[in-house]
Design the sequence.
């Protein structure tokens, strides 16, 4: 009976680790959640599930370059693909 309990705890702990990694947690933090859930599931699993619902996954916004047409993320001054200036302030129209 204890063996089945350990298998269930290990399975849930592995799920927490993989879910935390998918949600952007670093490896050390995901391992901490996994160990906490494995050792003291009744405390750490509800806390993780509450934190999981509160954490909004960041949406990746891609912008197309008006020179090469390839997409880049963020707001760089120059296109990472072709090198043309795409950000910053400009007083003349291009």
Sequence:
């Amino acid at each position: 009976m204890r063996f089945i309990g350990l298998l269930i705890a290990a399975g849930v702990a592995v799920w927490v680790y993989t879910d935390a990694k998918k949600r952007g947690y670093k490896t050390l933090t995901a391992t901490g959640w996994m160990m906490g859930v494995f050792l003291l599931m009744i405390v750490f699993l509800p806390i993780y599930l509450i934190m999981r619902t509160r954490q909004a996954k960041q949406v990746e916004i891609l912008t197309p370059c008006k020179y090469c047409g390839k997409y880049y993320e963020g707001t760089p001054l120059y296109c990472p693909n072709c090198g043309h200036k795409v950000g910053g302030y400009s007083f003349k129209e291009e």
User: Anything to note?
Assistant: The chain has a mean pLDDT of 86. The first helix runs from residue 2 to 22. The beta strands are 62-64, 71-73. The radius of gyration is 22 Å.
